[in-house]
Specification:
The chain is an all-alpha fold. Helices cover 48% and strands 0% of the residues. It has a single domain, classed as Non-ribosomal Peptide Synthetase Peptidyl Carrier Protein, Chain A, CATH 1.10.1200. It has three helices and no strands.
């Protein structure tokens, strides 16, 4: 994955926060577990991860804490093997 992908997800999250008139989140600030982002925001982020970056979230052992901070989200994206074909 490229740094562009990470920047795009970061931009999405910061846009969601701005739309809800919430302050920006730091690298390691909890997004979901703190309630800063709700289940609707989580769904939006998860859809973007799956559709744009090929992240497979169908694993029944997936834990949202793996994407609870901007830092952990970026790590997950960068760990992907490459852009999805298509």
């Amino acid at each position: 994955m490229t740094q562009y992908a990470s920047a795009s997800v970061r931009e999405t999250i910061l846009q969601i926060l701005a739309e809800r008139k919430l302050g920006p989140a730091g690298e390691h600030d909890p997004l979901f577990s703190s309630g800063l982002l709700d289940s609707l925001a989580a769904t939006e982020v998860l859809i973007q991860l799956e559709s744009e970056y090929g992240v497979d979230l169908s694993d029944e052992d997936f834990d949202i804490s793996r994407i609870d901070t901007l830092h952990s989200l970026e790590e997950m994206i960068e760990a992907q093997p490459g852009p999805r074909p298509g």
